[in-house]
Amino acid sequence: MSSVIKSKTTIILILFVVFAVSLIANSYGQEPKLQTDKTEKVYLQIQVRTSEGKLVAYIEPTVQFVYHPELLDKYLDKKPNKSIVTIDGKRFEKIQFEDIGAYAKSFTLAQYIMLDLDSRQPFPILTLIHNGCPVVPGDNYLAFWTILRPLS
């Protein structure tokens, strides 16, 4: 009988601790914002190739998370090759640029992260998620960005 009481007491104590920690714990994280009509429209095309140039994957991610909208604006302000386009009666600033690089280790590529490389410690500005693609050292990528920023 006493072992049943001890196990019930232990379960109650564990639940109390979990509940107390959840009340005390603070989250300083920021929820990423999903793409809406009022945010930038981000289109990305990624080509992954072997070191010999053979195409491994062609990816167009569709799920976007913007972690720091203000940093995205600053980042895009620095980019050249801007033009004004009208789509469905709405005006946008169209920004296009490329990003190239190579992979140093093997893993499954399932997201592409835009980093703020101008800061002392790079952190993500936005993330695009896609189906996984295995890469190995020596594989390289070409990422072609098209971003439409709404004009007021």
Break the fold down into its secondary structure elements and pairings.
Blueprint: H1 2-24, E1 33-34, E2 41-49, E3 55-59, E4 63-66, H2 69-77, E5 82-87, E6 90-102, E7 107-115, E8 124-135, E9 140-150
Antiparallel strand pairs: 1-4, 2-3, 2-9, 4-8, 5-6, 6-9, 7-8
Biggest sheet layout: 5 strands, antiparallel
What is the approximate shape? Answer: globular
| Rg (CA only) | 23 Å
Number of strands: 9
Uncertain residue segments: 15-36
Number of helices: 2
Specify the structural class.
alpha+beta
Distance between the first and last residues' Cα: 72 Å
Order of helices and strands: HEEEEHEEEEE
> Widest sheet: strand order?
3-2-9-6-5
Mean pLDDT over all positions = 78
Percent helix, as a range, is: 10-25%
Strand content: over 45%
Written description of the protein model:
- The structure is a single chain.
- This protein has 152 residues and is α+β, with helices and mostly antiparallel strands.
- The protein has one domain (33-150).
- It has helices at residues 2-24, 69-77, and strands spanning 33-34, 41-49, 55-59, 63-66, 82-87, 90-102, 107-115, 124-135, 140-150.
- It has a five-stranded antiparallel sheet with strand order 3-2-9-6-5, with no helix packed on it. Strands 1-4-8-7 form a four-stranded antiparallel sheet.
